[in-house]
Every structure is written in C-alpha cells, then in structure tokens.
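Give me the fold.
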Amino acid sequence: MTNTQLWFRGVRNSKFRHVYGQPVKRENCYDNVNITKNAHDSQFCAVNPKFIAIVTEVAGGGAFIVLPLEKTGRVDFNAYKISGHSGPVLDIKWNPFNDNVIASCSDDCTIKLWYVPEGGLSSNVTDWIVDLHAHKRRVGYIEWHPTAENIIASVGFDYLVIIWDVGKGEALNIIDCHTDVVHSFSFNRDGSRIATTSKDKKLRIIDPRTGLVISEGICHNGNRCSKAVYLKNGLVATVGFSKRSDRELAIWNENSLVTPLANEYVDSSSGIIFPYFDYDTNILFLAGKGDGNIRYYEIVDSAPWVHFLNQYLSGLPQRSLGIMPKRGCNVTQCEIFRFYKLHTTKPLCEPVSMIVPRKSDQFQDDLYPDTAAPVPSVSASDWANGVNKPPILMSMKTGVAVKTHKPKISTAAENLNSGSVGNKYHMKMAFLSQQTIPDYRPLDQRDTVPDIVQNTINNHICHTKEELMNNAENEKNAKTSSNQSTKFQQIQRKFGKPIFSEDKYNKLNENDSEVKSYNQLQRSYDRLSEEVLLLRKQLTLKDKRIEELESEIKYLKSTIEKTA
C-alpha cells in the first residue's frame, strides 16, 4: 500500500461514531434531593429498572433515599429514607439478581443489606436484613459478584478486601495483600479475578477465592487517585494521573502489567475520573468528578486497542454518576447507556441517555446483543469451590433469558424439619436467591396475567402451603386444626381465586405452565416467609422490652426498700 493510500484511507468506520448524550427535561429529573457532600470518591447513586437510590446528607448518621424510577419531579424534603448506619454512607449497590435488595457500606465499618418492598418505601427504614462486620476501619467500596448469587466484595480503609457470602452472613475470604489504601476494584466478566488500584500506585490482579496476586505493576506515576475497570478478553483499563498531573487512560493485559498496551492522554484537569464499561458495545465511558463532560471510547482487540469516539458536553459539573443496567435501557430510542448525573451545584439528579442515531424505531439487532440477565449462573457454594461460569444472557428484544438456571434454595419446610439455628438463618436469607424477572416495558405496554394462568399459580401456592404446614406439624404439635383452617382461609382470601381448579389447570400446556407458575409461586412463598420473619422479630423485640421493664421494676423496688 502506498503512502498516498495510507493518507486518504478516511475516517475509521464505527456504528458508534455518532453516539450523543441526551439529557431529559427538568420535569423528568429528580429535583430537591439533598445530595451528600461527603468528599469520598464513589458514585453515591445506584439504579436498577425499578428504583433509584441516592445517598443524602443527614446529621448524626448515614442515610439514602429510595424512589420508584417513575417518581420523577420534585422530591419531598421528608421523603422516606433508609437510615440504619451510625456513620455516613460511602457506597450503595443494588443486587444484580434481585431488584428489591440493596447493599450499603459506611463510615461505621459495616456493610448492611436492605429490602425495599414493591412500590417503594412506605416509612423510614432502620431494620436491615443482613449486617456484616469484619473491617476495622471505614468501608469505602462494595461490589456484587457478576454471576454468583449472594456474593459481595467490600474494600475498607484497613487495606483489606473481603469476599462475603450474604446468605450465610460470613466472610469467605479476607485478602490482605495491599500495603496502602485501595482506591478501586472491579470483577471480570465471570467473577474469577478482580483488579484493584491502590495509593501505592500499583495495579493488582487477584484471585478472589485464594487472595493470590496473579500480577502487579505500576499503573500511573501520579500521586492522585487512580481507578480500574475490567474490560473483555483479559483487558483492564485504568485512569489516573501522570507525573505532570495530566489525566491519562491506559489499557493493560491482565497477565502482564509491566508496560501498558496503550496509553492515552485525556486532559490536564484535576478531577478524579470514573470509568464505566459497556460489555455489549465495547464502549468505555470516562466521567471526571467536577467535569461537565463525558468522554467515550471504543475498545478493540488489537492495536491501537482504544479509539476515541466523542464526548457529551454540559456546562453543569457532576458530583458523581449512577448507571442503569443494560436491561433497563429503552430499545425503541436506540439507547445504549444511561447515566444518572448528580449535580454539584444543584440538588438535582438528571438522567442522561447515550443514544445511537437511527431513523427507524424498530429493534436494532446490531446495537443490542444478548445482555446479562438478572439470574445467577452459579450458586455461592459452587463458586467458592472453584466453579466459574459466564453470566446468563437475555434477549433485549423479548426480555427472556437465553439460558435458565434455578439455584438450589433451602425451603422453609426443610428448615423447620431440621430445626438448626444455621438453617433458620438460611430461611431468613432465602428470598435473596429468588429469581427476579420483572417486566421492564412501559406500563401501558405491559400484558396482564390471564385468569387461567393466575388460577394455576394459586393451585400451586395452595399445594406448597399445605405441604409446609404438614411438615411443620411434626415439630409443632401445638398447632390446632382450627388454626390451620384459619391460615388456609387467609391464603384463599389473599389470592382470591377458587382453590384446586383441576379443569382449568389441565387446559394449560404442562411444560409452559410449570415454568411460569414456579416463578410466581416462589415470589409469593418468599413474601409470606418474610412476613412471618418480621412478626417473629417484632415478638422478640417485645420480649426484650418486657425484660427491660421487669429489670427496671426490680431496681426501683430495691431502691424503695433501701430508702425505707
């Protein structure tokens, strides 16, 4: 090829070359939000297709609000909050497999898990479902495992990275290989490795099960904070500062961190950059703290490894950004990514959609390959024993998972029969493993459940509830037949359909009805189990209060006798 041909080979062809950012109108933003002013460099915002959570400024403790995604506009100043931490909340993350469970970490050295009911909070929440203690200093970052159920990782200012099994409420592994504060960490696609950056300027690739450092090296020579994010095919991207305080982007091979595959100059600003990677489109977004713009790059599998695409420009600086999972994007508008921008100068959270311009409003197969589904591909115990599996994929066009996986869940009947304390804890945490397959289409486009399918669901619920009561009767003979009848009638009234409608059940195709009814059955069953657990907790609290009052009475009585 001649020099002339090289000179005129034109602009690189890419379907994402003209991606642009589209902010929503003011009425579709979340206004009047008292966003936290904490100087910690985390996102402070977490989003899923049901809810948005934002860390707020609260005196004397830590709290965050949770709003249904469609509840835009001016937020009530006294909006209900989750406020169980005794220190400022530093990071929040939604469970990728259960849209009603959120994790938070705090300055009080703890990680807590919270359950958000359908429709949002109806009161202030101070009771958590899991409380994890092991860090000796404040916990700065948390991240859910991308494929394993009930696995979460936390990073503290005690230089420790801890892998937790929230289903058991215990630490699986404590990684103690860092010599200074950890600035960021990221799982790879199947969760078999994590990448961390630290104040000692090193990038480390670590096996999360054993804590073994696979490779390490200096990533950026500047003294300021650096961040890392895992890409595809063993590549890692880091953003940080050079010796001259220029911001830069580097691409690395996870097995060799001696020299970067590519090093790209960004600019000379001073704000910390947060990287966000889209696995489906191979686009890397860079957003600086205090900047008004968002840059985006396309990652390729060969040199030069990274291509600058464009940037979204705005005159209003950002405090931080939350991101919507791909399954929550609007495919009719060719939206490939959505940010939730927390403003620095305003009490405002502004959604910003990254859109590929297309004339047709039909589904674009080339923009939406199968994406990660809200279903775990491996159980916590299997992952801890060395099993790695890629995420289960779902179609963006139909919203149906390409593969199916049903994790083993300890049923309440098994727990009642065993009677052990550990199994009772598993029963409490069982709903964390339930499959969440919500309908993310607009409300006016959603289909209602046919009556015949609803009848089938009710039949299965009644069968399961009857079996549960029969098993529980072996251990608790104090249950009378009248109590069981009353409970049975309550269930019948709750679901409002005739019980054991055999002719309607036989009209359905056996295979299809079992799959649909199982998911509905599991959700209903877990909801009832949760209500029972809440009642037990209330009884326990009342018993404790009675004991406290009795001890006060004894103390007062003894005091009166002494004075007499």
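The longest strand covers residues 335-343.
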